[in-house]
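Person: Please comment on this record:
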Amino acid sequence: MAEYDNIRTGRHCTFVLHAHLVFVTKFRHKVFADRHLKRCEEIMRAVCEDFETELVEFNGENNHVHLLVNFPPKAAVSKLVNSLKGVSSRRLRQEFPDLVQHYWRANKLWSGSYFAGSVGSAPLSVVRQYIEQQNRPT
C-alpha cells in the first residue's frame, strides 16, 4: 500500500492523517477472548463511521487493543477516543455479562488513560504490520 494512496478530501482540505491508538482494560485485567475482541472491533468500526473516521486496522490481546485510524482534520482525537471507549465499554458489558464480574466496583471496562501516536513519520505499512502481529488470546 503506497503511503498516499488513500488521500481524502473534505470541503476545504485534502488530508492523510493517521493515529495509532492503544486502550488498556481497567486494572489491566485479562478479560478479552476472541469473541470479545471481534465484537469490540465491530462496535469501534461503527463509532469511527459516526466520526467520518476509518478504522484501518484493529487487533488486541486479553487486556488491551490497538487501533490504526484515518481521521479528518475536523475530528478531535480526544473526542473520538472518548466515544470509542465509552460506547465499546457500555455495549461490551451489556452483551457479555462475564465481563461485569471484573468491574463490579469501578463499572468501567477501560482504564482512564490511553496512548495516541501520530504515524506520520513511520511508514503506514510498518504500523499496520505491527498491529496485525499482536497476539490474540485463544
